[in-house]
Fold this protein.
Amino acid sequence: MAILLGIDIGGTGIKGAPVDTDRGALTADRFRIPTPDGALPEDVARVVGEIAKHFDVSGTIGATFPAVIRRGVPLTAANVDAGWIGTDAQALFAAEVGRPTIVINDADAAGIAEMEHGAGKDRSGTVVMLTLGTGIGSAVFTGGVLVANTEFGHLDIRGKAAEERASDKAREGEDLSWEKWAHRLNEVIAEIESLLWPDLVIIGGGVSKKHEKFLPLLETKTEVVPAQLLNEAGIVGAAIAASRV
Ligand code: BGC
């Protein structure tokens, strides 16, 4: 049994917990520290260090980050400070915690957790996970293997990024009815269907707790199901990714 630390870096909070990667379960309560104002690299690294110190867990640390991540380096910054682009986040965090650290995209991490221990378990074919929050994150698996860094939240829908129209932030910010928002989400899924023809779509992010309000309103060709790990998915997926290096 491997117990590794997973850390989920988000716009409002940075949360970590030890994870039994075989069971996909937290072995202690989450420890959360609010994301420092501006979320600058050094400040976020300091928080990652505090979370690591809080738990008596050794081994590689897995961390999520809400951007395209290639070999531990953010390449985009849609909802984070532009100073992250090109910063070696993985090296920065590893230097802070004094142990090997891996950094992957937040939605990819959530998808890994769902595929291993949640709604995507034992599902073959092509599975798309969408996380609906401040932005829209995506993760694509085919035959269980992740195609990293898909950015379906930035698909162009009616001249705007998909996430600007159909994220949970857009729903709340524009005070959209469930019907209106489901219609927008439907358009995003329809675009993904036309490109990928997935076998299953998993909807995650905090709003997936209220899935009965909007999933029945979708008119998709594909089976759409709610995520099962909810707000633990990022932490669990990050730890699983760390167990694979
Ligand atoms: C970013 C993605 C991220 C998603 C969810 C998007 O704006 O481009 O990389 O996965 O937000 O946080």
Observations:
- The mean pLDDT is 97.
- The chain has two domains: 3-108+232-243, 122-227.
